[in-house]
Amino acid sequence: MTTSNTGNGDVDPAVRAELDRLRDSIDNIDAAVVHMLAERFKCTQQVGRLKAVHQLPPADQAREARQITRLRSLAENAKLDPAFAEKFLNFIIAEVIRHHERIAEDTANSKAVEPS
Question: Is the pLDDT at 9 greater than 80, yes or no?
Answer without folding.
Answer: no
